[in-house]
Design a protein that fits this description.
Elements (H helix, E strand, L loop, with lengths): L1 H34 L22 E3 L4 E3 L12 H10 L3 E3 L4 E4 L4 H6 L3 E7 L14 E7 L1
Antiparallel strand pairs: 1-2, 3-4, 4-6, 5-6
Length: about 140
């Protein structure tokens, strides 16, 4: 009879310990997630172009860069001075008569990626159609309009 009572009391103690552990884990979970949650960091999220959303930047496909739309419009300027400056940034030469930028140091894939038109065999006299002497050679060009 004593053995039975001892076994019964051990079962009750084990059940009570399990209940206490379950309650403790539940209370700890509730405290960590609802009473004292960890602060969420702000400003680290980036958009598909790699721009910091929290800082107000967004990707501008036209200008191929991150910008804040209230500081700079996401559109190409038709101003030839702006186009000339943009051409210089690309390492190119601006031809105002033809209204185009020519960059001769880009590979075909780089040219296309940046929105240019690649020509693997442009004429060496392409900017001087009245040239009297012109060598027959191909010049790699990437042009932007």
């Amino acid at each position: 009879m004593v053995r039975r009572d001892f076994a019964k009391s051990m079962k009750i103690k084990i059940i009570l310990v399990i209940i206490l552990i379950t309650l403790s884990v539940g209370i700890l979970y509730f405290y960590q997630n609802f009473i004292n949650p960890k602060p969420q960091l702000i400003g680290g999220d980036k958009d598909a172009g790699g721009c910091l959303i929290g800082a107000g930047y967004s990707w501008c496909e036209v200008k191929n860069k991150c910008l804040r739309v209230w500081e700079e419009k996401c559109e190409l300027s038709t101003d030839s001075t702006t186009k000339s400056a943009s051409c210089s940034q690309k390492g190119g030469v601006w031809y105002p008569k033809e209204n185009l930028c020519e960059v001769n140091k880009l590979s075909e894939s780089q040219c296309i990626t940046e929105g240019g038109q690649f020509n693997g065999c442009a004429s060496a006299c392409r900017h001087d159609p009245k040239a009297e002497v012109c060598t027959m050679q191909c010049v790699l060009t990437c042009t932007f309009r």
